Amino acid sequence: MARDFVLRKSHAFNRIPPLVLWTLIGMAVGTVAIWQGHSLLSLKRGRMDDAKAWTITGPPCPAEGKDVFLLPHKKGPKRVDYEDVTFFRRFGHISCAPIYEDGGRGSRFYAVCQFTGPGELLIRDAKGQEWAFAPGPGQPATISMQGGQPHCVMASKFTMKSILAGEAPK
Q1: For residues 157 and 123, what is the distance between their CA atoms, to the nearest angstrom?
Q2: Of 57, 123, 125, nearest to 89 (Cα)?
């Protein structure tokens, strides 16, 4: 029995010279690599800018016993849970951000929260450890949980003026 041989058209890729095909593939891979590298650098730059903006300096907050915070008060505590840390305050507003270690270059982050005027602060970590600070009424404060320990300073870039203007802390 005779077989019929049918001429089939070659596939479109078979008609492209191999050098041209590999050049196009290399250009596509290179474009994706450059785009990914640019995205990664932009992300790192943004993290470093955030770390710089959220590094607040000022005098340390006076520490107080948590018993003082838990005393009866006209104003009950306000609670905010952020990144496995619970923040209690008496007054004011709060703004928090995850800040990456090593000035934004690291891969791990910690919570930083700015307060407009908390009065008193109580911080509880995921392990149940508690710390209390008393910046005082109307005094801004910033808590940084770097290294798993709270560091409180009596300064903040987060103010009522920035809240009313709709700005994020810088």
Answers
A1: 20
A2: 123
3 state SS of 133: strand
72 & 47 share domain: no
Q: What mean pLDDT comes out for the span 45-66?
A: 90
pLDDT for 54 beyond 60: yes
Return all residues near 146 (Cβ < 8 A) that are at least 6 apart: 99, 101, 110, 112
d(CA 22, CA 16): 10
Residue 5 forms part of a structural domain:
no
Higher-confidence position of 162 and 105: 105
DSSP 12: G
Cα-only R_g, the chain: 28
* Domain span holding position 30: 14-53
With contact defined as beta carbons under 8 Å apart, do 135 and 59 qualify? no
Same domain, 108 and 157: yes
Detail the DSSP E strand segments found in the chain.
Answer: 63-64, 78-82, 85-89, 94-100, 109-115, 119-124, 130-136, 141-144, 151-153
Determine, yes or no, domain membership for 3: no
Domain count, the chain: 2
